[in-house]
Write a structure and sequence with these properties.
This protein has about 350 residues and is α+β, with helices and mostly antiparallel strands. The chain is built from 5 helices and 15 strands.
């Protein structure tokens, strides 16, 4: 799906002239312009190889600081890296210089397949290389970041929802246990706290939470002044549900082991297939509340959607936690803010279910 979206974005941009293929560029420009393009590519090659050398040296220095290499070994590796990058620059620039010489001794409009390949437009959209809708898509060679301390995840959570009512146990709840549910969609960033260990992370972001309550025994919500109460409906209800949608900003401290992966010039801490625990809190705003009723009246099916505020709390805050293995977690959240404002008897939302953090 992500790959398709990237393709679609590229296609739309192409309609506005943001993207061009190398073939069109070569057919619609004279040799001087082609040479100018190749000269720009020539300079980019130098910058690119120097950036890659800088990353490699940084990795060698880190290994030296950790005691994995002696000063002599580090010096040898740096010289080898510098030699390799210098040869890369020499070989790649030689190809460009030959193409420039070819253009300078031929008339306008002259081109070769090699020239098209060398001057092909590059877009940094991941690791994919190929063509789409006549557009060349080529991975841009960027130095990989040596230490990536912050990553991001798509958050999806769902499960059972209910309310803790003052003076009552959860067993006496007037809301259906199976029918009352919650859904959460959001995005979270995760940052490693310490430099040399990934045991503790801070996870933060934003989420849309939809908390649903389905009253039992043919009841529905009615606002009487500043009080919201349950009353029996005069019709036989097929559905009665109150949904509160909140925009919240969670923050969790996440604990747990991780696996360290080291490459030639980078390293990463990975928590896939690892146990982890998160404890934290959230705060935000109620952005909408509605009640949905369904019933039959005189042989006609009625769907009644009421979007009044029902005196729900404008500010929402609470505590939450999860226990995970890999991407899947058991998830619990509890609103410290009451569901309804100014109530004689307070009710607080509680949710239990599963959570997926998908990177």
């Amino acid at each position: 799906m992500q790959t398709f979206i990237k393709y679609l974005v590229l296609l739309i941009l192409s309609f506005f002239g943001q993207l061009i293929t190398a073939q069109d560029t070569l057919q619609n420009t004279n040799n001087k312009e082609k040479i100018d393009t190749l000269l720009d590519i020539r300079e980019h090659i130098k910058t690119e190889e120097r950036d890659l050398l800088k990353t490699e040296v940084e990795f060698i220095n880190t290994r030296l600081e950790r005691g994995e290499l002696s000063n002599e070994e580090a010096s040898v590796l740096k010289k080898e890296a510098a030699k390799k990058r210098a040869l890369n620059i020499e070989n790649r620039i030689s190809i460009i210089d030959n193409q420039i010489a070819l253009l300078r001794r031929n008339e306008d409009g002259y081109s070769t397949s090699d020239l098209k390949e060398a001057s092909r437009v590059g877009f940094s959209i991941g690791s994919y290389e190929g063509t789409f809708a006549g557009i060349d898509i080529k991975r841009k060679k960027k130095p990989k970041k040596y230490d990536k301390r912050t990553t991001s995840d798509f958050v999806l959570a769902f499960g059972l929802n209910n309310a803790i009512i003052e003076g009552q146990s959860l067993d006496d709840s007037p809301y259906k246990f199976g029918g009352s549910r919650f859904l959460e969609l959001g995005w979270a960033w995760k940052t490693r706290v310490f430099k040399n260990t990934n045991f503790l992370r801070v996870k933060y972001g934003y989420s849309f939470q939809v908390n649903g309550l389905k009253p039992d025994d043919n009841q529905y919500f009615v606002q009487q002044g500043n009080q919201v109460v349950l009353e029996n409906h005069p019709q036989n209800l097929k559905k009665s549900k109150l949904s509160a949608t909140n925009l919240v900003f969670p923050i969790h401290l996440e604990f747990g082991p991780s696996k360290k992966i080291e490459g030639e010039n980078y390293f990463r801490y990975v928590t896939r297939r690892q146990f982890k625990m998160g404890l934290g809190a959230y705060g935000g705003f109620n952005i909408g509340t509605r009640q949905k009723l369904k019933y039959d009246l005189n042989g006609e099916r009625i769907k009644d959607k009421q979007k009044r505020g029902f005196n729900t709390s404008d500010l929402v805050y609470g505590v939450s936690g999860y226990l995970a293995f890999g991407e899947m977690a058991l998830y619990v959240k509890y609103d410290l803010s009451p569901i309804f404002k100014d109530q004689i008897i307070e009710q607080n939302n509680i949710s239990m279910g599963v959570r997926f953090d998908i990177d």
